[in-house]
Amino acid sequence: AQKITQTQPGMFVQEKEAVTLDCTYDTSDPSYGLFWYKQPSSGEMIFLIYQGSYDQQNATEGRYSLNFQKARKSANLVISASQLGDSAMYFCAMRWSRNDMRFGAGTRLTVKP
Amino acid sequence: EAGVTQFPSHSVIEKGQTVTLRCDPISGHDNLYWYRRVMGKEIKFLLHFVKESKQDESGMPNNRFLAERTGGTYSTLKVQPAELEDSGVYFCASSLLGLAGVETQYFGPGTRLLVL
Question: What percent of chain B has pLDDT over 90?
């Protein structure tokens, strides 16, 4: 069965430092996509970054990068140079051939000044 | 370009009442999804439309929930009668029709439902 796990309910990081948010997944389907979403206090879900299971290189989008380790089934999000505005809930999600998306429980990131 | 919009942003109703949530996807997006996040739990898939057809409704919790997408544009999710455990945030997302696992789903701001 497909499963997404985020083991860090909360994380703290000092402003301007880098932080890694963990995400592991489990699937037997060879084709899948991995996503990270940010949910600020206002509630909307903001797409951050995508990694396909067949992509050879790790995805990067500005200050966001995805550390994709396929053999370990992990897709950690790395945020470089943290900003106060990065404080939010972060959800890892996986989508496979069934078209729906499974979400992890989320990690609440707090950036300290 | 307008994003996914949802209405209302908040709804407070009493147990036993009916509530209808609306989602307007991004123009041209044939895929439309409903998710919900019940307090303290993870976001869960409810159902998936491709245009006006229900592709997958395996996540719908019970027959008190009815989703429609007449004409393949906006979608409604009706809860009748609402129960206390239905309280949570209901998200809608849309994406272009493409290869599974490739297209990105864009989420709306959510509707916060509170059943008293």
Answer: 67
